[in-house]
Design goal:
about 210 residues, alpha/beta, 5 strands, about 45% helix, globular
Length: about 210
């Protein structure tokens, strides 16, 4: 991807889907993970997607999407919560590196979401800066409950959608790129048990099928 033309947002999305399907099937190809690729991208990077995901150790992006060196520009925080550093990093991936796709990756059994639910139920918040993470997830939990979505998977999906919309709302760079059709954003929910990434949200991309089925 370093020396070739950048893919369209849809092509980038399909590359991710194909890689995840290989991972789910237990038939990864491990592309772009050799010495040739290492040498090819030494002069500069040209990733095809920004991957903003939860820091959970079970969500290693290049593994679950079967990609390699220089393919993904990865940003991760606990509960994929958004701050200035996250916005700047994602904008760098899109505006400077030219990534046509931004992916927000959440997952089931998310500790940040569970902690936010528990804090609302018992009034007890974690100490230290973990509290800040939980507080940033709480609005998603409240929105899900207000819409009658109370199951754990529904709350996770709502948090993913909320994050996608928050990025577009807070970043003029991202909103302009998506509005002009130069980039797209999708939200994916990863299932720990089977390794599949299911579509939760799409902005600037006409997607009618789940990420992995």
């Amino acid at each position: 991807m370093a020396a070739s033309k950048s893919p369209t947002p849809r092509e980038a999305f399909e590359l991710l889907l194909a890689g995840n399907q290989r991972f789910v099937a237990g038939a990864p190809e491990h592309p772009n993970q050799d010495a040739t690729r290492r040498a090819e991208i030494t002069p500069g990077q040209r990733p095809f997607a920004v991957l903003f995901g939860c820091s959970d150790s079970r969500l290693a992006a290049e593994i679950i999407f079967d990609r390699g060196l220089g393919d993904l520009f990865v940003v991760r925080t606990a509960g994929h919560v958004v701050g200035a550093e996250v916005l700047g990093s994602i904008e760098y991936g899109v505006d400077v590196l030219g990534c046509p796709l931004v992916v927000v990756l959440g997952h089931d059994s998310c500790g940040a979401v569970s902690a936010a639910c528990a804090a609302l139920e018992d009034g007890l918040s974690p100490r230290g800066y973990v509290r800040d993470v939980v507080e940033r997830v709480t609005s998603s939990v409240l929105a899900a409950r207000a819409a009658g979505r109370v199951e754990a998977d529904q709350i996770v999906a709502e948090h993913i959608r909320h994050t996608v919309d928050l990025l577009l709302d807070r970043s003029r760079v991202l909103a302009e790129r998506v509005g002009a059709g130069e980039a797209a954003m999708v939200g994916l929910s990863y299932r720990l048990a089977d390794g599949s990434a299911q579509l939760a949200a799409a902005r600037g991309l006409d997607v009618t099928a789940n990420a992995a089925s």
